[in-house]
Design a protein that fits this description.
Elements (H helix, E strand, L loop, with lengths): L17 H8 L4 E2 L5 E7 L4 E6 L4 E4 L4 H9 L3 H12 L2 E3 L1
Helix pairs in contact: 1-2
Length: 95
């Protein structure tokens, strides 16, 4: 029997507004429109993308460039970004 492919349900409107991008890129916790993420912030001096998940877990991705942080800010799905490229290219540290 053939396996059915799984297509995750993704938000398509979760890109940050201009004001949210500003807050996020300047290290302020910024609320995410996501079913799994609560908020995120980017620390440019440390090159870290910090995340808080629903359920309380927190951590951060290391060695994230400003260009990658901007890409994340503009992603229409934060969980999709995590699955598609963050988890595959960046180290994760639990906080």
């Amino acid at each position: 029997m053939a396996r059915k492919s799984y297509t995750p349900q993704r938000h398509t409107d979760a890109g940050f507004t201009a004001a949210e991008k500003y807050s996020f890129l300047f290290g302020e916790w910024t609320k995410c429109r996501s079913s799994h993420w609560v908020a995120a912030k980017y620390l440019e001096d440390k090159r870290e993308l910090h995340v808080e998940f629903k359920g309380g877990a927190k951590g951060y991705y290391q060695n994230v460039s400003m260009e990658e942080a901007m890409r994340f800010a503009e992603e229409p799905s934060k969980g999709g970004a995590q699955h598609d490229w963050l988890m595959k290219t960046k180290s994760w540290v639990y906080a």
